[in-house]
Protein 1
Amino acid sequence: MRKRNKLIAISLLLLSLGITAFSDNDKYFQIAKNLDIFAAFYRELNTYYVDDLPADKLMQRGIEAMLEETDPYTDFVSEDNLDDLKFMATGKYGGVGVSIFTRGDSTAITDVYEGSPMHRAGIRAGDIILSLDGKSVKGWQQEDISRVLKGAPGTPMTMTVRHPLNKSEKTVKIQREEIAVRPVSFSGIVKNDVGYIRMTQFTENSGRLVQEAFEKLKATNPTLKGVILDLRGNPGGLLEEAVVVSNIFIDKNKLIVSTKGKVKSWDREYKTLQQPVDVQVPLVVLTSRTSASAAEIVAGAVQDLDRGVVIGQRSFGKGLVQTTRPLPYNAKLKVTTAKYYTPSGRCIQAIDYSHRNEDGEAESVPDSLRKSFATVAGRPVKDGGGIEPDDKTEPTILSQVAITLLRKQYIFDYVTQYVYAHPKSPAIGEFRLSEAEFDDFVRYLDGKDYSYKTRSEEALEAFSATARREQYYEAVSKEFDALQAKMKHDKKQDLLKHKTEIRQLLEEEIMNRHYLQKGRIETGLAWDNDVLEAVSVLQQPTKYQALLVVAKK
């Protein structure tokens, strides 16, 4: 009788919402039925199971199991993790403005943010953290130290650090502040009147900051030949900010992006609202495999409206829009509510989460199913797999030896010694490590463990395992051993083989110590292949125009 009354109540509720069809097969009935079963199941389990069960842990696992049926961007955000959600939207957090790295029992400062409390307190990269608020951090995990460094703005903190070379100690007292990660990490002239703006995320007011950077470039360089908007590695963020950034270069009342989802009343078109800053300056947008979401909205609009040229690698392919919904006890549901579409009408979502293979894995949209669309000028563009550049470049892939030197912090440690031995700051763009100094770095590595396997060695090992499993190994064992011996790498020879790459990493780290992030970025631009290709295109108007037409053929 009670269940009958409950079903009648649910039926009346659904009728009030305009849902007239109701049967055992109706999904709303299935929801009500299974919620009833779930509640009864948990009540019985909790009452009669032999041991006590942690309610919060069980429910968390239930939520996680439900989320496995969705996409990676739909998530439950507990009250304890709301700061992470806020940071994604604002780029701000409470803290002291440093990055750290823990190795064994020792934790070092690796980066200091310009203008932060730690910067003003004289803390430098390479300093070793000994204690926080009087408590030794020896043996602490990196996450635990990071958690203490963060905190509400205005709260005090005491930290004792040790000099990396002379071992002297000092204690600083500082107050945590609101640290804003700059969405525009660098802007300037890269070469021959070509402007450059690097944008790292789409957070609150990021569009205004990009506009300010561009206006400054124009004001100080009247003969500006073009501008590069670098969105490589930009994971996206606020959709509205993508529209603002696009509006800097695209005329008023132009469609930038539209969203379509299950709730039709939420479908929207986003158009530029303001007069643009400049619709004539030649524009290049740089993308990479990790350019996603709002970054792809900008790149897609620039491409579809034929406003500029996209250079780099195919972008990530995230064409999904998330909305936050309130839950009880200050929790939030971050849920995918729509897909977004570029001005030509294409959705560039690369993975179809609504269809999964037998193993439950979502798969990428195959190229054969990608549909063609057209830009304003008629150039063909495709959906379903990110933004394809108009001018494709090969991604820069670090060698295994370079990756190992970075991962084991040998480049970092050597540079710490180097900058104290060479305290005078060299001019950005002019500094180069000498042959003798590189040789000194090679000597520094003597006796240090930076062993690694090359990709070729890893492939050879995989082949060996497969051959043994399929019982072919004995037949090819002699040839395999000979090939393995021939391919065996010499670490010191690898240092020389990849000398240019390692030297560049050393130079970037040295300039980071003298000029912080600005020094690292500006130094790296000198050998950045994507940037060099963009400069070449912008310095040749015929080449630039050809890229906007070639795809028609």
Note: Residues 6-22 have pLDDT under 50 and may be disordered.
Protein 2
Amino acid sequence: MAAAVVGTVVTGVGVGVWASSGGGGSGGGSDAGAVGSSRQADPPTPSPSRSYPMSKAPQTIPAVREHTAARGPGWKPQSGGRVVVTDPGLADEGKLIAGELGLAYGGEKSDSKAGDVRLGLGGSGNPESYTMTVRDGRVEIKGPADAGVFYGTRTLKQEVHGGGTAPEGVVKDEPAKPSRGFMLDIARKPFSETWIEDRIRELGDLKYNELGLHFSDDQAFRIQSTSHPEIVSKDHLTKAQVKKIVDLAAARHIQIVPEIDSPGHLGAVIAAHPDLQLRNVDGKATRGAIDISKPESAKIVDDLLDEYAGLFPGSKWNLGGDEYQALVVPDPEASYPQLAAAARDAYGANGNVADLTTGWLNGRADTVRAHDRTMRAWNDGFLRDSSIQPAKDIQVAYWTGKEIGARPPVDYLSAGREVYNYNDEYLYYVLGEPNDFTYPTGRRIYQEWTPRVIRGTSAVPAQYDGQILGGSFAVWCDFANAQTESQVASGIRMPLRATVQKLWDPGQPALSWPQFKELANKLG
């Protein structure tokens, strides 16, 4: 018994963490030094203090990576409690969690009171990592940067949800993957500002850090434009609404990744500029495709890229680059002689339409790079038959291996490319379920998928894991009226939770799927 007492003292846990047995000590520190003394000589002992079992790991989504258990009552918010910070840069995180837990925000303070939640900056390493210590009736959350501290507050919020208690002990946590995304197609289906903001709050609580917005396609162009107002669809978001969305996302440590897909998927732009429509040798229009042999085509897209770089201040950008229909015919050079001629002018006698298309992608990359953005493009925009290579700093957003001529992920990884996982086998929620798509389930993602499963159901070799930057669950609205906003929110609820669990920790989850689903329902 004496050894057990000494072990508890070393743990450093607070008031009243063990009970005496047979007159063996009151819990004072001096008792450890009296282990060998005669029991008859001991003074009368006070009533034993309350005994606490060893704490259990927090139950959160995503699960924390490490928890050191301890004995103690844990922590729950109480009337009169406060949130304080050690750095004024954490005011936003402090005010948010204080409001969520019904506590007062005390600002920057150095004193300590029972019931406190203290947020601080410190340490080194992954800026999204944090340590949360629950001890002596207080909580301390510390990280190298404000992002990690924010994620610590998300863990605390989930722990005490519905009157629960944050367990005694120390959590050390960080994500396995730096990019954890959700992509939303607002071009085909106009989602409301309120719906998008609700998703941002949900994503923030789940520790996602990206929201992709696909806002231009054949069906519509959904954000107000000052450079080209003629292309904007009637049902659209104003720049003021977008700024609210961007600001809310930033407060949740989520950055918006905008996408103006080109040179395909530009039907809404072409509708206002029919002279830029790509036509084949017979004069037939090619759906969604802009004529990249015309300098005016590059100018209008660059105008838009420059304009929206000011609206979306994040560091990342999706260039699109997929499904240019000029490349799906048997002989692009014969079908589109104007493209073939432009390719020869640009790249010599052997230049072809694939070269010209890759050159287009690189040109748009130059425009975005000037705004100090990191760029990605869909994997089918990296063309096999092109002698011109996409710029080395364009990352691969790998979504499918089903397209004709699609290369396996290892082709890109072995060439040193960094890859984002958008695997359409698991992560594509396509409204109306066209082209053999079925709505993905959380169960299948949770039980089968990992970030290394980039194409189909097979994982790439472990040696490439470091080049896989993360992944993204995606909602595409091919049949916009197939589901309402509320149906989409309900349908993606469990897939979002399963996806982020695997991006935060790609190892085998500790909970079974029924247990995970029960926890998700408990947390709301």
Note: Confidence is low (pLDDT under 50) at residues 1-43.
